[in-house]
Design goal:
Length: about 475
């Protein structure tokens, strides 16, 4: 069988984190009752006129600068005409001829190999509404809350050759945009969506094969599976002497297969023309400089600083800076308690354990950094022991409770009273002569049993270090 190479390019749509829509003052909040975040502009009523949201332009510029793009200082909007039930105007305001950002790149690393993925352009546009298909009532309903939500579309060059490279590119994009605060990039809520353009060709061939576009991809796992599935489908067609048709396909993750939606449109199919209701955007050197000066500390810089300033191991710094939300929690908690390594230990240990157990992403963490700092201080001061601290942390993780109040209400304070501990230990020794004999006969493990019995007698509230010390003294 001949060897094939996969050629992949991405169109990534990102919902921007503005409070209002791109051309009107309606809310962009996710999850409102259907058609409550709407007005004549975003529902396409005749005679309504768009007014550009300045923050959309600044977020687009910020993403462009962070991905090494050139900013188009004289850019404009265009009308993209198409007729779908969820598109209230029967056109979308987008950018074709003069997109706001061009010719950038993102650097990735896969299996120790570094590679630069080209960005053809980034353009601004408005989102469409959302269709809800009700099979029970046998009808389709439309919600225009999403209509007019600001998007940027990041169009890559066809530089990726594997699902691993695609995921590395998407992760780098998501992290960069989250650090900028331009979007939360939650794929499960649709604020980051990727369409995959994929073709195959024989290894060594100069020409690209016929590409297809894969839609309905809302997680990194489904993207990886869709790439592998479409690659195999196209190779099978070629091997059978058939032609790959240029088309848009929809990936069904449950069935792990795709099906054709429509023939792939080209630009001329959309009959683009300049948007007559919006003036061109003129971006001055000063405006670009101001946006650039507001760029945050990105992951690589932050990672290096954590190692140097806080003495964190490279592995810890790598995990913590992997998402902005986790890095923000670490920094805020460290600022409050002044114990960076101990904050890091709680993030690397219990936080990561609970995230894995509950199948959550770091972005889903809801506890306040000050409550993590309180747990660090309570454990450090010996107010609660390590077992109790883990119980308190789980309550904080689940419900963001106040650790001080929780400890008081559940009577979890550690017993540090030497007299009370000595009394309890003497009783344990008297009740377990066999373990005492074992210890005296060189069985060091016997002391562990006696410590356990003491902790049980003290209902888990004894100071373990003091228990060990007094036990050894009495034995």
């Amino acid at each position: 069988m001949r060897e094939y190479e996969t050629v992949i390019g991405l169109e990534v749509h990102v919902e921007l984190a503005t409070k209002t829509k791109i051309f009107c003052g309606c809310s962009t909040a996710f999850g409102g009752a259907p058609n409550t975040h709407t007005c004549p502009v975003c529902t396409g009523m005749p005679g309504s006129l768009p007014v550009l949201n300045k923050q959309v332009v600044e977020y687009a510029m910020a993403v462009g600068l962070a991905t090494n793009c050139a900013i188009t200082q004289n850019c404009k909007f265009d009308r993209k005409n198409y007729f779908y039930p969820d598109n209230p105007q029967n056109y979308q305001i987008s950018q074709l001829y003069y997109p706001i950002c061009r010719n950038g790149h993102v650097d990735i690393e896969v299996d120790g190999v570094k590679k630069s993925i080209g960005i053809h352009e980034i353009h601004m546009e408005e989102d469409a509404g959302k269709l809800i298909h009700d099979e029970w009532e046998d009808c389709s309903l439309v919600d225009f809350n999403r209509s007019g939500v600001p998007l940027i579309e990041i169009v890559s060059e066809p530089d990726m050759r594997s699902a691993e490279e695609v995921i590395a590119y998407l992760e780098k994009l998501r992290m960069t945009i989250q650090y900028l605060g331009a979007s939360d990039c939650k794929m499960q809520e649709g604020s980051m969506r990727a369409d995959v353009n994929i073709s195959v060709r024989e290894v060594g061939a100069a020409e690209f094969g016929t590409r297809t576009e894969m839609k309905n991809l809302n997680s990194f796992k489904s993207i990886a599976r869709a790439i592998e599935g479409e690659r195999n489908r196209q190779i099978e067609l070629i091997e059978d002497g058939k032609k790959v048709v240029q088309e848009t396909r929809r990936w069904d993750d449950a069935k792990e297969s795709s099906y054709a939606m429509r023939s792939k449109e080209d630009a001329q199919d959309y009959r683009y023309f300049p948007e007559p209701d919006l003036v061109p955007i003129v971006i001055s050197d000063e405006w670009i400089a101001r946006v650039k000066s507001q760029q945050p500390e990105f992951r690589e810089e932050k990672k290096a600083r954590y190692q140097e300033e806080f003495g964190l191991p490279e592995y810890d710094a790598d995990i913590i800076t992997g998402t902005k939300h986790l890095a923000d929690i670490f920094e805020e908690a460290t600022k409050i308690c002044g114990k960076p390594k101990k904050v890091s230990n709680w993030i690397m240990g219990e936080t990561m354990r609970l995230l894995k157990e509950k199948e959550m992403d770091p972005e889903d963490i809801t506890f306040a950094p000050e409550n993590l700092a309180k747990i660090v201080n309570l454990a450090d001061a010996g107010t609660i022991n390590n077992t109790a601290a883990k119980e308190v942390f789980e309550a904080v993780f689940n419900d963001n409770v106040d650790p001080d109040v929780y400890v008081e209400e559940h009577k979890m304070k550690q017993v540090n009273d030497e007299g009370a501990l000595r009394e309890a230990i003497e009783k344990v020794i008297a009740e377990n002569p066999q373990s005492v004999d074992d210890y005296h006969n060189g069985k060091e493990k016997a002391i562990g049993f006696l410590v356990g019995q003491t902790m049980k007698a003290m209902k888990g509230k004894a100071n373990p270090a003091m228990v060990n010390q007094i036990l050894k003294e009495l034995l």
